[in-house]
Every structure is written in C-alpha cells, then in structure tokens.
C-alpha cells in the first residue's frame, strides 16, 4: 500500500468516525425529545382533566341547588360568593368539592405513575378568581358572572441534576360562566 492509499484509507476512517458520532448524538437527542414530549402530553392531559372535573361542578356554592333543578336561580351578583372567600368551605376536602371555586388554591399530586425514566409524579396547582368582563385576562376584585381557573402541572424529577433538562410547567386557563334563563 502506497502513501496515497494510506491517506485515502485514513480519510475514510475519519469520515466514518465523524458520521458514527453524529448519528449517535442525533439518536440520543431524539430519545430525550421523545421523553419530553411524553411528559408534556401527560401534563396537558392532567390539566385538561382537572378543568373538566371542576367545570362539571356548580358555578357557586349558592347555585348548587339550582343546577339540580331544586332551587331558585341566582339573579343578582350579590348572591354569589365574595371574591375574598373563594375556595373550599369548612369540612370540604378533595374530591368531595361541590362547586367550581372550591378548587381555589387546590394543590396535589397525580396518583398515577407515568413510566418515563426520572419522573416520580406530577404536581397540580389550581387557582380560581372572578374575571373582569371587559378583559378576561384580568382578575376582578368584584363578583361577576365569570370565574377563571388557572391550572399548573409539572413533573417532579428524581434525581434532578444539572445535566437533566428542567421540566416544563404546563399552564392552562379556563373561564366558567353562570347563565340563567327566564
């Protein structure tokens, strides 16, 4: 083998080595992206489930009877819960909430395990407030016919290290309105 053939062989080996390294790096990144996507989809599902659970409840503790067809409809804003008192009533505990604003300051873990390496569980936090009718993004300090729920869901990673990507927090918002008909 002469010098030219040796140089060509060495160049081929170097090119092959670079190709293998780039393929391995791409494969590892692809696995990380798939895991992160699984985690994000599950977090979105948990947030949506919490919103659906809460929106299946009565609008307010004072409207719980009219949603069952047993009481009078609320016709005046003064009949609704005071904005400073939003949250669960004394003696109520999750999952026995009976109205939408009981989820104000709810915090808990998801009881189901997602089988992705490093994810222990998911944390869920919700807040509920009245909404300014002219600007739904703004919180109202007065009673309105609309309440907004903000749900935050994020995974707890164990063991977390500097080379582990920081988990995303999924934030979903839902506006629940009270309607009554004459």
Give a summary of the structure in a few sentences.
The protein is 29% helix and 24% strand. By secondary structure, the protein is an alpha+beta fold.
Overview of this protein structure:
This protein is α+β, with helices and mostly antiparallel strands. The protein has one domain. 29% of the residues lie in helices and 24% in strands. The chain is built from 1 helix and 5 strands. The protein has one helix at residues 3-55; strands at residues 106-109, 119-132, 135-140, 146-157, 170-177. Strands 1, 2, 3, 4 and 5 form a 5-stranded antiparallel sheet that branches. The radius of gyration is 26 Å and the shape is elongated. 18% of the residues are buried.
Task: Present the secondary structure layout.
Elements: H1 3-55, E1 106-109, E2 119-132, E3 135-140, E4 146-157, E5 170-177
Antiparallel strand pairs: 1-2, 2-3, 2-4, 4-5
């Amino acid at each position: 083998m002469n010098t030219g053939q040796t140089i060509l062989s060495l160049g081929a080996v170097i090119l092959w080595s670079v190709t293998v390294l780039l393929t391995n790096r791409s494969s590892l990144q692809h696995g990380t992206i798939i895991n992160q996507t699984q985690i994000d989809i599950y977090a979105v599902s948990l947030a949506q489930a919490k919103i659906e659970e809460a929106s299946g409840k009565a609008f307010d503790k004072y409207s719980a009877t009219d949603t069952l067809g047993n009481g009078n409809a609320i016709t005046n804003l003064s009949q609704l819960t005071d904005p400073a008192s939003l949250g669960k009533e004394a003696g109520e505990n999750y999952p026995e909430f009976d109205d939408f604003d009981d989820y104000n300051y709810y915090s808990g873990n998801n009881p189901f395990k997602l089988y992705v390496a490093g994810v222990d569980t998911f944390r869920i936090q919700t807040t509920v407030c009245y909404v300014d009718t002219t600007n739904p993004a703004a919180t109202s300090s007065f009673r309105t016919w609309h309440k907004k729920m903000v749900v935050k869901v994020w995974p707890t990673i164990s063991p977390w290290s500097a080379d582990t990507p920081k988990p995303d927090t999924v934030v979903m918002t839902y506006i629940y309105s009270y309607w009554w008909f004459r």
